[in-house]
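Whiteboard transcription, Tuesday session. T.W. wrote the structure tokens on the left side:
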């Protein structure tokens, strides 16, 4: 039995909103391809809005742009992850069209 490793194409995009040369918030999407689908999926990561700019709809604009970009790039889905205990944030994602769909299992290498 041989175990082989090969590199696959993964692309990333940084989306940000600026005002007067100052960044108000950002997020990332990563396109991930696998052999089960002929199209990639998008992973939404690191949605961040400066504390002083929260509650102004900036996060919503970032996530909507990420969703639009994933569609434009022919993804078959977009995934966002969030920790347990963040019920308000989970409701926010659901208002933006995301559905609760399972668990994330991980190992931290720190």
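and on the right, the sequence the group agreed on:
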């Amino acid at each position: 039995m041989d175990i082989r490793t090969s590199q696959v194409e993964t692309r990333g995009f940084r989306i940000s909103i600026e005002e007067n040369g100052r960044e108000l918030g950002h997020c990332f999407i990563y396109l991930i391809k696998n052999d089960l689908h002929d199209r990639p999926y998008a992973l939404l990561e690191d949605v961040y809005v400066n504390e002083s700019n929260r509650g102004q709809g900036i996060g919503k604009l970032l996530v909507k742009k990420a969703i639009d970009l994933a569609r434009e790039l022919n993804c078959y889905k977009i995934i966002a992850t969030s920790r347990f205990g963040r019920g308000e944030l989970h409701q926010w994602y659901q208002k933006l069209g995301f559905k609760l769909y399972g668990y994330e299992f991980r190992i931290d290498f720190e």
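Someone added at the bottom: The CA atoms of residues 2 and 8 lie 19 Å apart.
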